[in-house]
Amino acid sequence: MKIIYFSIATLLLLSFGSCKKFLDVNQDPNNPTKVQESLILSPVELYTTTQIAAGYPSVTTAYWTQQLALNQESPNIDTYRITPTDVNNTWSFDLYPAIFYNLRTMISNADEKGSTAYSGVGKVLLAYNLAVCTDLWGDIPYSQAFQALNGTKPTYDSQESIYKIIQSTLDDAIIKLSSTSSGKAIGSDDFIYGGNLAAWKKFAYTLKARYYLRLSKAPGYNAATQADLALAALQNGFASNADNALITYAGTAKAENPWYQNTLPGAGGVVLSSTLVNILKANNDPRLPILANPGSGNDYVGRTSGTAAATDPSIYATIGPFYGGYDDNGSGSAAPVFLATYAEALFLKAEATLYKLGAAAATPVYNSAIAAHMDMLKVSASDKATYLAAHATLDPSVPLKTIISEKYIADFLSLEVYNDWRRTGYPALSVVQNAFKPYIPQRFPYPSQEITSNPQPQQSIVTSTKVWWAN
């Protein structure tokens, strides 16, 4: 994927226009609905990586899963202080108007023109973001959510029904992406795959597998059945690291990787958690110096979340430049943000194989998953071989724990870490010191703006309550 540049000012301009159109009662000639698909796709892709995959949702859940820690005095977000006001932007600005509304507009316009490529790509992005939304909040408005112009106050769809919509949306996307008459071709406006529809299909199939296994422990669902569905999808999913879904940032002003902005000196004290660092150290993991920048003394020290007072941030390890962390030469500013990887696909395959055929059959797939992540990070062949020799087998008593514990490393900074923890209980995490709440939150609270403008029964749910698929 070529390095891209896109002005954040232009991005915000489109978003404000979209938000205004979402709320206006009458047709506004200054905000037409027939915007060219190419003018919608680029900013929506950037919104997805910048505001979602590396934005507030991922930063928050990286604290809760103890990959990151905040070098600030408690209470704060990594000690579970989250309010309805904190999530307003993600719901009321990023997901609903800027992403959902714009994608639905792009898909509708593309369908009218027979532009199956734009329609198919739009549906993949819609499914991805719809899963993020329901995974964070549970029941959400969707089927009635875009009838505000008719004065509708949308009721919430159940999470189970949203997951059915996600899978059917991906099925529709695959059909569109397989069309031989794709209408207008996608090109440089696609920052993820540059218009490569075969790659988008692999992404769609990989997401289907991700969301099938999300329901492996959901009420009324069977792990073996979900595994069958996931394995079938993965046959058409990612086949190598060349298939990874990502956007690489230009690294110039206003086009920097968002993690780089989060870890600039003085940006707020985002450092690595002692939980993650200690796991990597205990395993002699060769990925440690790639995932992390060392602190003072060239040592890797993680911060214990919830420590009462902030300390000198220079002593702590921080995100390494491969994933966008700050470094003195600025290479992290041009790092990619990942939406899905080949390593994740193999971990999904390992888990599904475990459910169907047992630990012995899952072991070689599990090893391939670790190797794929190390290859992505360009770990040396000798270091990779040494690590795999030491971690080649699954714990016979709790094989799923072994798979998810390694996936915790390979999905560094991904929302999937939080989803896996809620779904499987791995890795085992303890409530941090000086916690604002005596539990790790299982969901986001509903936004205050939504509670005020569209009161619904679900909004009274507390953040300690598990989402439907985690029950």
Top keywords for this entry?
6 strands, mainly alpha, 17 helices, globular, two-stranded antiparallel sheet, single chain, two-stranded antiparallel ribbon, about 475 residues
Proportion of beta-strand residues: under 5%
Order of helices and strands: HHHEHHHHHEHEHHEEEHHHHHH
Strand runs, count: 6
Q: What distance lies between the first and last C-alpha atoms, to the nearest angstrom?
A: 39 Å
Blueprint (SSEs and pairs):
Blueprint: H1 8-23, H2 37-53, H3 56-64, E1 68-70, H4 88-113, H5 116-137, H6 159-177, H7 197-214, H8 223-234, E2 245-248, H9 258-262, E3 270-272, H10 274-282, H11 288-291, E4 292-293, E5 318-319, E6 336-340, H12 342-357, H13 359-377, H14 381-390, H15 399-410, H16 415-424, H17 448-453
Antiparallel strand pairs: 1-3, 2-6, 4-5
Notes on the structure:
This protein is mostly helical. Helix content is 49%, strand content 4%. Helix 4 packs antiparallel against helix 5 and helix 5 packs antiparallel against helix 6. It is globular. 49% of the residues are buried.
Summarize the structure.
With 471 residues, the chain is mainly alpha-helical. It contains 17 helices and 6 strands.
